[in-house]
């Protein structure tokens, strides 16, 4: 596995360094290392096809290391964030995520996208962008090309959201509190929420971050749900043999080991069993492994496949995002948030 791991590691280091330069020059990583890694992986794969020596390490990075990263993400979640948000807003966030996923899947399937790609796009839009796509992908047996396409186009719209969302403040006459809720409900990644709210006000940043963290907590239940229905998803035409198979017998077949580990660490953190000093290192390790996995996924993607599905994926992601924004605005109005 060493040659493949070294190749993925080299791409990861370049992506991480690129994000560090962004943070140094622009204060915020508008294009995260995770996106950089998958794009660099695709670029390498386009210019050069790794031979058999690299394939085992690349496959291990794309699957097993990604599953470990999902487990470690649980250490950063706490049930305290749910209690702090209040029951009305909590119910609204849950409803927004459910509506967002359902509407996105419907839009994607209507446009003819495969079922698994539809789920990836839906979860990326409704929960937390690239992280949600990376977490859900191994559960449903998604193809590398579907993961790459979902992340690539979701990432582009994520950057556009950061740049365009502040326009809602003057155009819609929103208060700082209202804008914070809107940003927390619609912007994909936590760093992007900061980038979209810091220029507006401190209150918008605080509210947006809280709402976003509660929204991220939906990832656990959503991943468990899709793990339970994964076996019923249709097999995609042209998929790798056995790529999307799931077993029918046994609890660990229905709920994969890494989901159990994710929930266990989240529960342990909520109960105070994981020291605060350990949360940051575990989160950083999870982030690094996720970037490494995305580099591996990029290395398995033929860019010509992305070109063939690009138009439909763009329409699907855009339509899903519009539904999410409209739902969020209706929630703000319905709850009477001022």
From TrEMBL:
It is found in: Cell membrane. The chain crosses the membrane at residues 30-48, 60-82, 88-107, 119-141, 147-169, 181-202, 214-233, 254-274, 286-306, 313-332. Keywords: Cell membrane, Membrane, Transmembrane, Transmembrane helix. It is a multi-pass membrane protein. The keyword Transmembrane applies. It comes from the Bacteria. Belongs to the UPF0324 family. This is YeiH family protein. It comes from Methylobacterium longum.
